Amino acid sequence: xxxSEIIARKKLILSFEIFPPKKDxxxxxxxxxxxxxxxxxxxxxSVTYGAGGGTSDYTVEIASRIKENGTAPLAHLTCLSSxxxxxxxxxxxxxxxxxxxxLALRGDKPQNQDFTPPEDFHYASELIKEILAEGDFCIGxxxxxxxxxxxxxxxxxxxxLKKKVDAGCSFLTTQMIFDNTMLYSFISxxxxxxxxxxxxxxxxxxxxxxxxxxxxxxxxxxxxPKFLALVDRFEKDQKAMxxxxxxxxxxxxxxxxxxxxxxxxxxxMNKPKIVEKIVGNISSILEAVR
Length: 290
Ligand code: FAD
Prior knowledge:
The protein has helices at residues 3-9, 27-38, 59-68, 84-96, 124-134, 154-168, 180-192, 209-218, 225-234, 238-258, 272-281, 283-289; strands spanning 13-18, 44-47, 72-78, 101-105, 138-143, 171-176, 199-203, 263-267. The chain is α/β, with parallel strands linked by helices.
């Protein structure tokens, strides 16, 4: 099912994100993770494409597995390091497997100095046009409440986001946030310039300190004092850190729902047990609002 159809009949969207394995040997465990997450009854599960060192090779297979479980998959696709030919071949594979939802992304600039991107694509908005020319897909885009790290100017970044939305996005998912006020201010600025599609809040449960350091390498997210104090206090005790991280994410989600969020997107980090605990903490709230 298209996510746009789900949005049309739901008051709150709940979604999770997983990533493909780094090696072929990990595929079965990602399938098991997807199966477990589907049992938490999300509206969709998204599968990354080559992010964080994972391969892009299994995005189609994992998205198909999610679909077989009766949950809508959202397959990510990046373009900056790809040729048009490669992008078209991946879109064709999505079509063959009846995957109807694509998160259209530019992708990060290659770290490898020896690799020069082919220049077929420069921005996600160009990928959106390409996808729409290839078929009838529901397309989402990424957004950055604290500004995309390369933009240096939040207002310019928002204008660029508007161009992306106008190219044909049905929804946006945010980079992870740890301070909800960042999101509330972003949403009001976005609405003021006519971005009126649903914006799903990206929540990353931090359950160990090394995960936090990796996350800080990837994003420029603001970490509020309350969150930093929690990490300081519990990072050396794995069980305590996990419990505190789950409680923090739960608290953030309850605040978002209270304030009328369009959707909650949990960066599941292939840890279904953590997601189960968070969803368990808010089960009655979800029942009341979905
Ligand atoms: P764009 O929307 O193209 O924006 C990139 C930059 O270009 C911004 O600074 C923007 O302001 C600027 N810009 C955009 N349009 C224009 C224009 N017309 N003129 C001038 N400037 C412009 N990466 C992966 O590799 N795989 C994944 O699966 C993945 N999943 C992600 C999921 C989410 C929810 C998020 C938030 C990010 C994800 N990323 C993933 C990371 C993403 O690829 C990077 O953040 C990337 O640097 C930007 O991608 P984008 O699609 O937001 O780019």
